[in-house]
Design a protein that fits this description.
Elements (H helix, E strand, L loop, with lengths): L7 H19 L12 E6 L7 H12 L5 E5 L10 E2 L6 H4 L1 H9 L4 E4 L3 H11 L4 E5 L11 E7 L27 E5 L7 H11 L6 E9 L3 E2 L13 E6 L5 H10 L1 E7 L8 H12 L6 E5 H4 L12 E4 L1 E5 L4 H14 L5
Parallel strand pairs: 1-5, 1-6, 2-4, 2-5, 6-7, 7-8, 10-11, 10-12, 12-13
Antiparallel strand pairs: 3-4, 8-14, 9-13
């Protein structure tokens, strides 16, 4: 976390502007449109890399067998504009890498992307049969009023140690956490102590009706990209790590712990790999021997083309959210109760 002290006065101004905007929504000067079916917002206050997508996938796994689910996302860095309902021909360029990844793994859900969430909700309402909408990365997009909000906080970047832009990495002041029904402290150590948990609860200063849960990221077995089959690399297999995500250090640390990691290649979040990038990646891979494997994140695979010369030398590591302190059932019940109690015919 970088605090850019020289920019502190601008952060005060930014925080004031965002706080005023939130008040205008609270006072109903700016309109938040409500809907007669469940809408769950997943978002963050700290920019980038808090783990929203694993949480979104967790919610889909929880709900998809009982309800018709639609995912509404901005579709960050997609090459299309406006509201768009994904279909079987949609690519990561059309709808964004994260919505594409989620939709590919869950073909039974609807995936809609829209810069303006109200337009996306209208498309869902008029063109899909939907029981519940999951709005990804929508905590600050208040023109749609969610019935239930989940705020994801990175354990390694607590709000009380950060500042709003541009001196810090917060999209609004920490007062915004009051809008959340659930606060999920993610990317915790698996062995986080109960004392540390209680310290977090104390410092979060929760409202009486808010709930807090703690989670970590679980890394799955590496899979070959070309056939999605598990592979059993070991410490003797030379690995080059590739990541175009926010906060890639934990991913690279996992590779270093499990494999013989020779080199890491880091790009910006949602980076679109150019031919020049891919040529350089192939060159770096070749330096470590003909049998060297490239291991990347699942999200990055959506931006790697099957025509690559080294395609069969690419593997990825899937991740999942794991709820700590044996509180998963409590979390699930909160989500299920909200969705069940707010169906159109309830």
């Amino acid at each position: 976390m970088k605090i850019r002290k020289a920019l502190y006065p601008f952060s005060l101004l930014y925080g004031l502007v965002t706080s005023l905007r939130n008040k205008l929504f609270d006072w109903q000067v700016l309109e938040s449109k409500q809907y007669d079916f469940p809408v769950i917002s997943v978002g963050n206050i700290t920019v980038g890399g808090t783990g929203k997508t694993p949480l979104t996938e967790y919610l889909i796994r929880l709900l998809k067998h009982d309800y018709k689910v639609s995912l509404l996302s901005r579709g960050y860095k997609r090459k299309t504009k406006g509201a768009l309902l994904a279909n079987e021909q949609s690519t990561a360029s059309d709808i964004g890498d994260e919505p594409f990844q989620v939709g590919k793994k869950n073909p039974m859900i609807n995936v809609v992307v829209a810069e303006k969430r109200v337009e996306g909700m209208s498309l869902i309402n008029n063109n899909t049969n939907t029981d519940v909408v999951l709005m990804d990365d929508a905590y600050q997009h208040r023109y749609v009023k969610p019935g239930f909000s989940i705020l994801v906080i990175d354990y390694n970047r607590p709000l009380w140690s950060d500042l709003p832009f541009p001196a810090g990495d917060m999209r609004e002041t920490r007062a915004g956490q009051k809008r959340a029904n659930i606060i999920l402290v993610n990317k915790c150590p698996e062995n986080i102590s109960n004392e540390e948990k209680q310290n977090w609860v104390k410092r979060l200063k929760l409202k009486s009706e808010q709930n807090v849960f703690f989670s970590c990221i679980k890394y799955g077995e590496a899979k070959m990209l070309w056939n999605n089959e598990n592979v059993s690399f070991n410490k003797e297999t030379s690995i080059v790590g590739l990541a175009g995500i926010a906060q890639p250090d934990a991913f690279f640390s996992h590779l270093d712990e499990k494999f013989s990691l020779k080199q890491t290649l880091a790009f910006g979040d949602h980076h679109n790999f150019t031919e020049h990038d891919l040529s350089n990646i192939h060159l770096e891979l070749s330096k470590h021997g003909a049998n060297t494997m490239l291991i990347t994140t699942e999200k990055d695979t959506t931006r790697l083309d099957k025509t690559l010369e080294f395609y069969r030398h690419i593997a990825y590591v899937p991740i999942e959210l794991s709820i700590l302190f044996e509180e998963e059932k409590t979390l699930e019940n909160l989500i299920r109760n909200y969705v069940r109690n707010n169906q159109k015919d309830s």
